[in-house]
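chain below, 124 aa
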Amino acid sequence: MPLIPSEAHPHFEKMIYLPMIIQILERDRETIEISPFKLKGPYINIVERALKTVRSDLKETNTYARSHNMKLIKKGKDGTFTEYVLIHNGYEDIRRYLNVRLRNRTEELINVYFAKIENPSLKG
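prediction:
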């Protein structure tokens, strides 16, 4: 039996990806604000609505993690991999994620969040 149960892994994934999405969307919002767009409002509105949803999901994830004794530590990063330590009820698991995979999955999730704000009935 694995030391970290499989049902915990999606929550660890959210703990990895949601902060990245927030950081990217905040940076994008800043870029839009200083860009030469004629009408910035609609773009900023989309990013703000997505940020609100992502922050809400991260808050739920953090609450779940605390109540299930879960912790994520970013251990290191090189040109190819980022290493995380997943801790669940005192058990540790070290995972290495390909940076290109992290980037691609983050982009996929941003698309999911943009689709969710356009159609709130979609589940991510």
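Residues 22 and 51 are 6 Å apart (CA to CA). Residues 6-69+105-118 form one domain.
thats it, cya
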